[in-house]
């Protein structure tokens, strides 16, 4: 059987929320707007949303405390705030962090008798409706069912047990203009990782591959601009399209080894999520014995060889240092991530993981 499921309505264009504001009226009566600490205020998205809600005479409250790689504690705090204010729908604005946090808060708000830990133990829970307004070009969370949460008690990040697709993704390229180069680079490398890992998992199918191949081609068209840090509006537009396409891919296929292996780099070394995956991509492609799809990736990205791709990533991302003990610890912990391991075609040994870390770091 082959299936493809992605129920989010995507509305894309300049001033897209204002031009489609009536859809907000059907979602509920009072919104909880969820953002990071400052970017939604700077890029104009928060102002646009609140002005439209005022015009529609709809109530809202704002929770603007979501940090990068959102923690379970923040999700609990935001959901308590939403419950106290009797909100019945959510608007998540920002990068993956606030939108992922919004998905998890929506579940806790809809199920007030559940403890925060139920996010990992009770897969049947549903959320209240969510609108996603992405402002980075990386996670594709606006079209995925996932929410990646930092669990400090376990010193790692992990996906919750539920599935929440936003009802609507409003994508307005104007909100991406304020992204500094570092955020564009880290997030677009995340999108590239989604395209590559999603194309190579055992769950990839003809529909997800078709999208991945087009996304890789679009990304390849931007690669010179990315390394030269020349981000004109049409390049930002291509990068957000590649990111949303990449989300549509992993919504079907999941992610693979680099995502699971990158989590400790983010947790312990504060390396941005996209960069953490990106430094592992070359060694991940090396690991594949059957190079048919790997060669296709290199071709679609318009590199001559896999080595050229590796050099490009090192030039773009720099190098990361890990001690021998760290490599051992992260390898041991990753080997318990059965879900990511099962996404890889073929057996993955401890030596494979050690080799991937060692060849990707110094
Ligand atoms: P992020 O953590 O949401 O944001 C990174 C930084 O960029 C923050 O400082 C943020 O500022 C800033 N920022 C956001 N939009 C901006 C803009 N338009 N202009 C200027 N600055 C801006 O970054 P992200 O890479 O998008 O999200 C990463 C999270 O998503 C990770 O937790 C990762 O695990 C998760 N993820 C989820 C999925 C999924 O399918 N659910 C897939 C991949 C990754 P503020 O804090 O002020 O907003
Ligand atoms: Zn990712």
Structural features, described:
This protein has 362 residues and is of the alpha/beta class. It has 17 helices and eight strands. The strands form two sheets. Strands 1-8-5-4-2-3 form a six-stranded parallel beta sheet, sandwiched between helices. α11 runs antiparallel to α12 (273-287). It is globular.
How would you classify the helix and strand content by structural class?
alpha/beta
Identify the bound ligands.
NADP nicotinamide-adenine-dinucleotide phosphate, zinc ion
Q: What overall geometry do the principal axes of the alpha carbons give? A: globular
Compute the gyration radius: what is it?
20 Å
The helix/strand order is EHHEHHEHEHHEEEEHHHHHHHHHH
Q: CA-to-CA gap between the ends? A: 43 Å
Strand count: 8
What share of the residues lie within helices?
40-55%
Beta-strand level of the residues, as a percent range? 5-15%
Largest sheet: 6 strands, parallel
Low-confidence stretches: none
Order the strands across the largest sheet as they lie in space: 1-8-5-4-2-3
Average pLDDT across residues? 97
Task: Count every helix, treating DSSP H or I runs of 4 or more residues as helices.
Answer: 17
């Amino acid at each position: 059987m082959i299936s493809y499921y992605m129920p989010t309505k995507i509305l894309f264009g300049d001033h897209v929320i204002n031009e489609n504001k009536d859809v907000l009226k059907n979602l509920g009566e009072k919104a909880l707007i969820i953002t990071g600490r400052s970017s939604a205020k700077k890029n104009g998205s928060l102002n646009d949303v609140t002005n439209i809600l005022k015009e529609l005479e709809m109530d809202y409250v704002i929770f603007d405390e979501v940090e990068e790689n959102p923690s379970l504690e923040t999700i609990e705090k935001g959901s308590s705030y939403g419950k106290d204010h009797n909100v019945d729908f959510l608007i998540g604005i920002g990068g993956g962090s606030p939108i992922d946090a919004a998905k998890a808060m929506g579940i806790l708000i809809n199920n007030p008798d559940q403890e925060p830990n139920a996010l990992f133990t009770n897969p049947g829970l549903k959320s209240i409706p969510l609108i996603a307004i992405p402002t980075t070009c990386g996670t594709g969370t606006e079209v995925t069912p996932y929410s990646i949460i930092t669990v400090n008690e376990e010193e790692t990040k992990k996906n919750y047990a539920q599935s929440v697709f936003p009802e609507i993704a409003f994508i307005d390229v104007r909100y991406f203009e304020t992204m500094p180069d570092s955020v564009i680079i880290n997030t677009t490398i995340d999108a590239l990782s989604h395209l590559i890992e999603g194309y190579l998992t055992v769950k990839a199918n003809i529909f997800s591959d078709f999208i991945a191949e087009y996304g890789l081609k679009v990304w390849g068209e931007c690669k010179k601009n990315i390394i030269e840090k020349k981000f004109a509006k049409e390049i930002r537009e291509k990068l957000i399209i590649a990111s949303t396409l990449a989300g549509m891919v992993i919504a079907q296929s999941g992610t693979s080894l680099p995502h699971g292996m990158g989590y400790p780099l983010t947790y312990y070394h504060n390396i941005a999520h996209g960069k953490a995956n990106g430094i592992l991509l070359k060694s991940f492609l090396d690991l594949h014995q059957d190079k048919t799809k790997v060669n296709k990736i290199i071709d679609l990205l318009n590199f001559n060889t896999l080595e050229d791709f590796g050099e490009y990533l090192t030039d773009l991302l720099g190098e990361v240092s890990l001690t021998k003990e760290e490599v051992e610890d992260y390898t041991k912990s990753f080997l318990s991530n059965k879900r990511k391991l099962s996404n890889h075609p073929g057996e993955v040994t401890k030596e494979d993981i050690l080799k991937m870390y060692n060849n990707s770091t110094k």
